């Protein structure tokens, strides 16, 4: 944020009351620091505990696992900075995939038509969340819990009604499938390592979200509506539109994730996605997002997702029982949050 | 504002017999006040007197139910705070003036951020924002250590001053201040009042809401007293003394009664 030095036009004299801040101290003030320390610790731990962890192929797998979570952790982090939750984010991914798949299949249309329809439907659900929140002024926890349950039911109910089973029919032989698969579920080989295209989506989204947060008016408003909605409204920030926009961001990324799900497996299980919403929130919190809003970063959410990827795959490479994953996750969440709080206190004290 | 004589005769803001009801509760009834350029109008009243309701009407957060509200002679009903801002009325609230976790410069431009570039590369003009913030604060006599620090790390008085400087910078014609000295110590109150006077000297009309007649009398030109939602008095500075203002504000006879109530019973 403060990497570029402003031009020296006499106004930027260094105030004698300011102690000189070292680059290290500036680094300490970043919200994602706690998660970076955590990520290094996890990386070091599994490098020692699992022999195969450091192989290029393993790292590709780890990055893929991180990217599938990271794509959703980015908008969820932005939403949390804006002071709200979205518990429907996990099943929304499944809904998006189901709409895309079933529309194409039932209409025997080019799969791209289904992809487009899915985008519209998913965005509409995001708008619904945001609109209900700003209209009713109920906590987002309640509103999106309602959407979560309704979507879970709809996913199963409509899929059974239309397809007769709990999963959709394969659309692998339909028109447009190869090109859609290329965009959402292909892989590229870089230096002998197979990398899934979702990693590119993920990095792109993180870069985009960081740009929006730190360098656009909308980003300024996101921090403001999360840090003090009344104060923001009083100076003319469109609080409602900002929040609805954030929910649309979650929906857009759910659409990307959903299409990836569909085009990598050809079929979609309608019961999937339940519980993932918490994983996205945990990734954002580990990445330094304040649960009360107004503070956090998109890069932090990416590091949070990376910790997830490393832990879930590291346990497999270490040949442990995967049941331990959840335990590690909980411990990581607690440690990262404590570390974040501790660092923030120290930084504010040195100011 | 065509001629100077016209600005003399037309107040920047004029409330005439304004009332506001919340359901069957009478929050404000028959209140009149005027604000002129380069003058400070003080609104005095105890808790629950209707000061907040009055400020919310002027700031565009609430609409008045009866009476007329004129801005530079034109009758208006404000739709929202943005509307009030566009008409030159800036409000500084006691507790929600700023977003504490955001840096000073982001707070300073919140809601009116300057951008550069176009299309997808339209971005905040961060350097301009930083230097302008520092300049605007210096012009008001505020020498801040670091515009990058979260505004929550400033003292209450400093935060009020930044909010006042912001209003002046964005060309507000009328500045509404909600209890700017309520939570402050003696020295800090003095500093804030100094900036209020500085804003007045820049030609702004100021509405100062307070329950402290001493602070009001120091800077005020006109005084409106509110009591239980109605006007209990309206004075100009030359028609009232501080003692008179204090007595009216404290409720005169009510204070006498209170003194009797609080007297030690040892006399009996």
Automatic annotation (TrEMBL), chain A:
Name the UniProt key words of this record, in alphabetical order. Answer: Cell inner membrane, Cell membrane, Membrane, Sugar transport, Transmembrane, Transmembrane helix, Transport
Which residues span the membrane?
Answer: 33-50, 62-80, 111-131, 138-158, 197-214, 221-240, 246-267, 279-312, 324-343
Q: Which GO terms describe its cellular component?
A: plasma membrane
What GO molecular function annotations does the UniProt record carry, in alphabetical order? transmembrane transporter activity
InterPro entries membership: ABC_transp_permease
Q: What is its main location?
A: membrane
Q: Any idea where this protein resides?
A: Cell membrane
Membrane-related topology note? Multi-pass membrane protein
**Entry annotated with the keyword Transmembrane helix:** yes
Looking at the keywords, is Nucleus present?
no
Q: What does this protein do?
A: Part of the binding-protein-dependent transport system for D-xylose. Probably responsible for the translocation of the substrate across the membrane.
Q: How is this protein named in the record?
A: Xylose transport system permease protein XylH
Which organism is this entry from?
A: Streptomyces gardneri
Automatic annotation (TrEMBL), chain B:
For the ABC transporter domain, which residue ranges apply? 13-253
CDD domains on file: ABC_Carb_Monos_I
Q: Which UniProt keywords apply?
A: ATP-binding, Nucleotide-binding
Q: Does the keyword Ion transport apply?
A: no
Highest taxon of source: Bacteria
Under the heading SMART domains, the entry gives: AAA (SM00382)
Supply the Pfam families for this chain. Answer: ABC_tran
Q: Give GO MF terms, alphabetically.
A: ATP binding; ATP hydrolysis activity
- Give the protein name, as stated in the record: Sugar ABC transporter ATP-binding protein
